Fold:
Amino acid sequence: MNAFLAILGRDLRLSLGSGGIGLPVVFFLLVATLYPFAVGPDGALLAKTGGGVLWVAALLAALLPIDRLIAPDAEAGVLDQYAVRGVGEEMIAAAKITAHWIGFGPPLMLAAIPASAMLRLDGETLAAVELGLLAGTPGLAALGVMVASLTAGLRRGGALAGLLMLPLAIPLIIFGAGSIGDFGGGALRFLAASSLFLVAVAPFAAGAGIRALRE
Amino acid sequence: MTASLALSNLACVRGGRVLFKGLNATLGPGDALLLTGPNGVGKSSLLRLIAGLLPAYAGTMSYDGRLALSDENHALDPRLPLAKALGYWAGIDGTGPMAVSAALEALDMTRLADVPVRLLSTGQRRRANLARVLASGADIWLLDEPGNGLDTASLALLERAIAAHRAQGGIVVVASHQPLGLTDAQALALEAAE
Structure:
C-alpha cells in the first residue's frame, strides 16, 4: 500500500509539473470551440450533435498523454527499481491508472461545463455528459495506461498507441454518446459496465506489458 | 536476518546467444564478489539476473535479504532536488530521510542536497545513483561499474562505503573494470561461452 501511494503521488506530481493535465483539457476546449465554427451557428444543430462531439473530443484528448505514462519510467530505469524492490507490476499499473484518471477525468468534467455552453447544450444534456464522463473516463484512463505499457518499448510508439487504443475505446464512445439521448439510462449502464471491465482488466494487461519491457 | 547469496550452475541466454553458463558462487555476510571480464560477456546481465530483472536460462539463484541495484540509470526525477529524489526511493524502502542524509554524508554530497538532479554533473549523478543504494538499507548491493566517472576522492568514498556495508554484514556484488579496493573479495572472471 505504501508503494501504491508513493507511485500514485509521484505520477500525479509529474503530470502536474509537465503540463500533462492542462494539455488534454485545452485540447478538449479547442474542439468545443472549433466545432461551432465548422458547422455554423445553428443552435438546434449544435445542441443535437454537441454531446457526441464532446465524447469524440474526450476520447482524442485521452490519447495525448499516452507517451509519457510508461515510456519515460522505462527509459529512466524507474520500472527496474520498482522490480528490484519487489513492487508488483499490476500494482504499478493500478497506481498509474488511478493517478492518470485523477489528472484526466475530473479536469475534463470541469472543462465540459464551458464546452457545453459553447455547444449550446441544455442543463439536462450537460448533466448526462457529466455523468457519462464520470462513468467513462476511468475506462479511458485504464485503456491509456494499458496501451502505453504495450507500446512503450517501440520506437514511435505514439502513432501505434492511437491505432491500438481507438478501436478498443469504441464501446465507450458508443455508450457514452448514447447515454445523452432519450434512452440514456440503459446506455449509461452499458458505459459503466464497459468502463468497469477495462478498469478490471487493464492492471493485468499493463502489468504483463511492463514485465515484457524488461526483456 | 543474515544476508546470503548463492548462485549455482547459472546460465544466461540473451537474444539466442549464450552469455555465460555454469556460474557458481556462494556469499555470506560481509562477503564481496568482483565480476570481471571483457565487454559484452554478461556482467551486467548477471547483475540484472540476480536482481530478478532477467530470467535465468538454467541453474538456480537464491538469496536472503533485500537487494539494491545500481546500474547505468540513476532513476531519479531530474526536476527534483537530490535529497527529495532520493527520498522517494527511501520512502518505498521504508528507510526515510535519515537514511538519505546519511547516504549523502557518506558520499560527500550533503551540500548538493537541494540541487535539482538535472543540474548534477556526470560524476555527481553516478554518486547520486550510489547514494540511492546506500539509502535503501538493503543487505545485498549489486553495483554495475560503480567507479565509472568518479574522481579519486569519490572512489575512496565508494570503497569506504562498501567496506562499511560489509562490516555490518552486507554483501556486495560488483562488476568493474577499475581496480576497486575490495579486501578479501571473491573474484569471478566471466569468459565468453562457446
